[in-house]
Amino acid sequence: MATHLPDDFKCPISLEIMSDPVILSSGHTFDRSSIQRWLDSGHRTCPITKLPLPEHPCLIPNHALRSLISSFTIPKSQQDPNPFRDPDPDQSKKYQTQLLIHTLVSPSSTLESKLHSLTQLTRLTKLDSAPRRQLAECGAVSAVLNCVNSTESEIQEKAMALLLNISLDDDNKVGLVAEGVISRVINVIRNGSSSSRAIGCTILTSLAVVEVNKATIGAYPNAIKTLIWALYSGKGREVREAATALYAICSFVDNRKRAVEWGAVPILMKIGGMGLERAVEVLSLLVKCKEGREAMRKANGCLDVLVKVIRNGSERGVQCALFTLNCLCCFAEEFRVEAEKEGVLEICVRFLDEENEKIRRHASSLVQTLSGRG
């Protein structure tokens, strides 16, 4: 059976299929027993590269390769007695995924083969959770993260798309953060291509579905600052995804003050005035903290942006604008006076017959506030 297995499954020293593959500091993989005998003999160079090794070399288990080898070397007693029957589609997909993962983690893989593997794995994981779990469980995430660090923009973009797919599985979200995904993603949002930056923001949104990740991302140095930078300097999809990520992260109370301190409010006002309602949704979270209300009080054009959305926005936008304006009118008298001048009371009265329950409720609260009964 060994003759039909990939050469990378064989130890470079024994030329036998590896049972316990380990990685040497040179980046090459050997069977543990073979490389240990080499080291016990007094050698302190890599058998392949001949480069010097430390006095006490560290042997890192290659979990991804071990998983692949285990999947291929099925005992004969467990093999299908009828090899001519149609293969199980699920099993075929599993083997296909394993081969692609192997290409991705193998140090001998070319740039082109890694790009092909990333493309195919992204396709496989887009709608199917099984390959996502397979990638996470076999230790391949570190290989994907290495591709995220690539200076080749195409490799980086494909790796980011694959990382996003892996993050869609709820069981993977905390583990990805533990593997150091946040720092890699923040770096890409700062320095990657426009497409990679947008995907990076979406990854943060995906990870923030888990409450503990919201706290971790918010506390990570420069995470919120970088999202606000993307709001300010990005275009199109980047700005939308950055606003969505900020909304997800700021649903965690402690992150609202951080966003305000990094200057989110005036930037959100600007892009909200340009028609991005997601910015108003973020403001509806930031207004819940005193620092956010103070910042909105100081920002130019705050009332104009909110009234514009109340008049012409979507149902979701109207809800958020009504809530935000009511909070501000309760906070500062000048907002109440200006809102009355803009005819907000009349608009809210019309909303009292609205079918949308949330719009009716927020409009009713604002009517009471503007009438001095709030």
UniProtKB/TrEMBL annotation:
**Organism superkingdom:** Eukaryota
Pfam name, any one: ARM_PUB
Record bears the keyword Transferase: yes
* Annotated catalysed reactions: S-ubiquitinyl-[E2 ubiquitin-conjugating enzyme]-L-cysteine + [acceptor protein]-L-lysine = [E2 ubiquitin-conjugating enzyme]-L-cysteine + N(6)-ubiquitinyl-[acceptor protein]-L-lysine
> Which residue ranges does the record assign to the U-box domain?
4-79
The Gene Ontology biological process terms listed for this entry are: protein ubiquitination
Q: Sorted alphabetically, which Gene3D superfamilies does this protein's record hold?
A: Leucine-rich Repeat Variant (1.25.10.10), Zinc/RING finger domain, C3HC4 (zinc finger) (3.30.40.10)
What keywords were assigned to this record? Repeat, Transferase, Ubl conjugation pathway
Q: Which InterPro entries match?
A: ARM-like, ARM-type_fold, ARM_PUB, Armadillo, RING-Ubox_PUB, Ubox_domain, Znf_RING/FYVE/PHD
Instruction: Give an example GO molecular function.
Output: ubiquitin protein ligase activity
Specify the pathway: Protein modification; protein ubiquitination
Q: What is this protein called?
A: RING-type E3 ubiquitin transferase
- Specify the species: Salix purpurea (Purple osier willow)
